[in-house]
Amino acid sequence: MPSTNVKAISESTREKLKLAISQLESFLNENALPQLTAEDQGNESELFYKGLLSDLRHMLVFSEVAYEKLGVALRRPNFDTDFAERALYEVYHQCVNAFFYPKNECYSEDGRYAYTGQDAIRFRKKPVRTGRDIVLSVSKVFEELRDDLSYYESDYMTQRRMQGQK
């Protein structure tokens, strides 16, 4: 991939991560487990929100680390394409996958809804409005990142292996 293209993708990815980080950070700073479970009593409810908060925290950390790596790549006087491509690969495999395949499976993506104009995210249990809103809000960012970085799903590592064999 040409370095100018990698630089442009790195810049747009960094901006999208910045948006996701600000949304996640705001939600996590303003909401805690007692607040989320206050409206929805029950043991299953508490487990659901513990899982959701845990997944969102992981997503925030992965996104912040990737944001910083892309910032390092973009601030260097000579743009290091290999470093930036590796950072983009990590964005796809850590941030995007952390969103679409959450460890606690409080929500999942249902591909059948992706083309209907409806939200493709389906929750295991109906969350409170703020919980639903944050997941659906960042889902748009991570969908865009998934589309932008689809090359890094498998083609990037295939290319690296082939270069190593030469």
From TrEMBL:
Q: Name one Pfam family in it.
A: DUF3907
Name listed for the protein in its UniProt record = DUF3907 family protein
Source species taxonomy: Bacteria, Bacillati, Bacillota, Bacilli, Bacillales
